[in-house]
Amino acid sequence: MTQNTGAFEALLQEDRTYPPPPDFAAHANIADPAVYEEANRDPQAFWARFAGELDWFKPWDTVLDWSNAPFAQWFVGGQLNVSYNCIDRHLNGPRKNKAAIIWEGEPGDWQVYTYRDLYREVCKFANGLKSLGVEKGDRVTIYLPMVPELPIAMLACARIGAPHSIVFGGFSAESLRDRIEDSQSKVMITADGGWRRGNIIPLKQNADASIEGDTPVENVVVVRRTAHADDMMQAGRDVWWHDLVANQPLTCEPEPMDSEDMLFMLYTSGTTGKPKGIVHTTGGYLTGTYATSKWIFDLKEDDVYWCTADIGWVTGHSYIVYGPLANGATSVMYEGSPDWPDRDRFWAIVEKYGCTICYTAPTAIRTFMRWGEEYPNRHDMSSLRLLGTVGEPINPEAWVWYWQHIGGGRCPVVDTWWQTETGAVMIAPLPGITTLKPGSATQAFPGIEAAILDEQGNEIGPGGGGYLVIRQPWPSMLRGIYGDPERFVQQYWSNYEGIYFTSDGAKLDEESYYWLLGRVDDVINVSAHRISTMEVESALVDNLKVAEAACIGRSHEVKGQAIVAFVTLKDQVGRSDAVIAELKQHVAGKIGPMARPDDIYFAAELPKTRSGKIMRRLLRDVAEGRALGDTTTLADPAVVEMLKEQYGDEE
Ligand code: ATP
Ligand code: MG
Fold it and tell me: Is 507 touching ligand 1 by the criterion CB < 6 Å?
């Protein structure tokens, strides 16, 4: 381990608390706090109960086999099919004609798929894949915009036992090529284009470029979305989706899969370095996403649930598709940008479909804050009853804004901490039980044994901080990094023997609530004070002039590291030295003088990954005047180039 912990300073104070609204608690799926103790007494029995709510073709013999740690096996000997659990089992009752997916395209077109519709589409496409020679175990790369064919393709792959590898539609041809090669996919599914801010994203061009020359891909299935690449079909290799499914039978037997057969692989977002192909399997993954969807999102029969993530990220896999559909829920999907045609698009969608649950990212919430409350105020959002966030620590100001201006002061906000690797949410409130604190993900989900350790592996108690770990295996845990078992062991299991290392820092408050501090490399060491970038950023965003902030530590001869803050101002605020002085003072006042930034740089935008996370390592490169590291997972490389030009030489 390279970073030393010691105690993280207990810096920011956050005293606001939000107990579950009595009305909410009275109807919550789970409202008895005894579940925590029960689950922790016998986690395997707890998980087996949820697994038992799924449909199995063959029951398991052993709940957990951990004899070959860290390679876990859950529900060993059991057989099931994920597409059967997400579709077929809902067809024999009143859910048959219930909306499974409500989809809206960016231009304003929309479509509703009932469970019965979804069944037919998935079966037809599964038969189509078979006709291309795709067999159980073959990998399929999916490179699609947020169109209904995306979940249909996933479920079709699951139906025939072909693991999918989804590559987010914003990735370049080169990133796509790397991922196709790593997964050795036989088939790629793409589209002629997708809509984003009124423009067409040229997916087919990228797809073609990614398989030029040597490639494992034999066939490309193309969805017609924008009629943008009709002249780009390559005879013998490419086939239109609509042609492929045209004459396929409406039924397709689901393949019985072993609980430990691979369901999918997915590359992490690459915030810290080279993306890793994370492997998830069948029974445990579905159990984890099913259980957490049911309890954390409190899914009810008549909910209209909307997760705004892209399915290209794990959040979309687990909480647009598999978790909600395994619960028989109605899941909303939106293709495009939140500011098209105007900045109220999300809230127009909430009003139009009567969304009851909305799950989004802190980066989006901070953007909405910057735009102002006039946009949500244009719409009747009284249908909402629960809100969620994921992806980064949420600063308390953004949490409270979300609670107030989106939730109308009546909806619990569940801050959910998890990772591509964990498959499902690990730390989050249960909204009918947990008293919320803005900025805290609160408690580990029942059956999850999280802890905070110091460098030596001693457990840190309330009031302290250190490395977040998970002590016991859990059903939806990653089973490996595709093709690289050594990196798997090295990355996750070598810091502490037999304990999962998350790479995130966290603090426990006096009531044992978890406060996530971001990645361990995002901790700044100023004159032996350990300061989390997250806390300085929270203090900055707490100032009314600031829209967004990112902090990093720049090497400093005397102090070890000095804090440098990159700040995006609110739309109407001008840049000046007076603002810089005010912000430095603000941070010192909020946290303490040791947290006062040495430098504050103004940025029009912050460099983010395509999943919307701030890339602090590139800001460190800028502040330390180095050449920029790997930028392939950046959403917009121009942002960091501009900062480099502006500030790159100031040392
Ligand atoms: P890479 O591992 O390739 O660097 P990544 O970690 O950004 O990329 P993901 O698996 O998409 O890829 O993100 C998981 C990480 O996101 C967590 O480890 C954590 O740092 C952060 N995160 C997610 N949700 C939360 C949350 N609710 N609070 C704080 N941090 C969160
Ligand atoms: Mg990660």
Answer: no
φ, ψ of residue 197 in degrees (nearest 5) = 50, 40
Q: What does the pLDDT read at residue 126? A: 98
What's the 3-state SS for 481-516?
ECCCHHHHHHHHHCCCCCCEEEEEEEEECCCCCEEE
Q: Where are the domains of the chain?
A: 5-506, 522-647
Which residues neighbour 34 within 8 Å (Cβ) at sequence distance 6 or greater? Answer: none
Position 517 scores a pLDDT of 86
Determine the Cα–Cα distance for residues 32 and 36; give it in Å rounded to an integer: 9
Which H or E run includes 195?
A: strand 194-196
Query: What was the pLDDT predicted at 6?
Result: 39
The owner of tokens 């102090």 is 559
Among positive and negative, which fits the CA dihedral 3, 8, 12, 16? positive
Helix-strand-coil percent breakdown of the chain, rounded to 5?
30, 25, 45
Look at residue 634 in the predicted model and tell me its pLDDT.
84
Return d(Cα 68, Cα 73) in angstroms, integer.
Answer: 9
Closest ligand to the CA of 418: 1
SS3 440: coil
Distance 141 CA to ligand 1 centre (A): 23
pTM above 0.85, yes or no: yes
With tokens 């949410």, the residue in question is: 425
**Protein residue whose Cα sits closest to atom 28 of ligand 1:** 393
417 CB near ligand 1 (under 6 Å): yes
Collect contacts of 495-498 with beta carbons under 8 A, ≥24 apart. Answer: 495/1, 495/467, 495/469, 496/453, 496/457, 496/469, 498/69, 498/70
Q: Are the C-beta atoms of 232 and 204 separated by less than 8 Å?
A: yes
Output the CA 312–ligand 1 centroid distance in Å.
15
CB environment 390-413: b (16+ within 10 A), e (fewer): bbbbbbbbbbbbbbebbbeeebbb
How confident is the model at residue 230, as a pLDDT?
Answer: 84
* Ligand 1 atom nearest 394 alpha carbon: 28
- CA of 244 from ligand 2 middle (Å) equals 37
- 565 token code pair: 């803050």
pLDDT of residue 649: 64
CA of 90 to the centre of ligand 2 (A): 34
Q: Is 501 within 8 Å of 467 (Cβ atoms)? A: yes
Mean pLDDT by 10 residues, the chain (651 residues): 39 80 97 97 98 98 98 98 98 96 98 98 98 98 98 98 95 89 96 95 95 97 93 96 98 98 90 80 98 98 97 96 98 97 98 98 93 97 98 92 98 98 98 97 98 95 94 98 94 95 94 91 80 87 93 89 94 92 93 90 92 88 88 85 82 44
Burial code (b: 16+ CB inside 10 Å, e: under 16) for 101-130 equals: bbbbbbeeebeebbbbbbbbbbbbbbbbbb
CATH topology of domain 522-647: GMP Synthetase; Chain A, domain 3 (3.30.300)
Ligand 1 binding pocket mutation candidate from 166, 178, 182, 269 (most atoms within 8 A of CB)? 269
DSSP 436: B
Decide if 476 contacts 489 (C-beta within 8 A).
no
Task: Tell me how far apart the alpha carbons of residues 311 and 480 are, in angstroms, rounded to a whole number.
Answer: 21
DSSP assignment of 25-93 = HHH-S---THHHHHHHH-HHHHHHHHHTTS--SB--SEEEE-TTTTS-EEEET-EE-HHHHHTGGGTTS
Does the CB atom of residue 603 touch ligand 1 within 6 A? Answer: no
pLDDT at 52: 98
Ligand 1 pocket check for 425: Cβ under 6 Å: no
CATH superfamily of 5-506: ANL, N-terminal domain (3.40.50.12780)
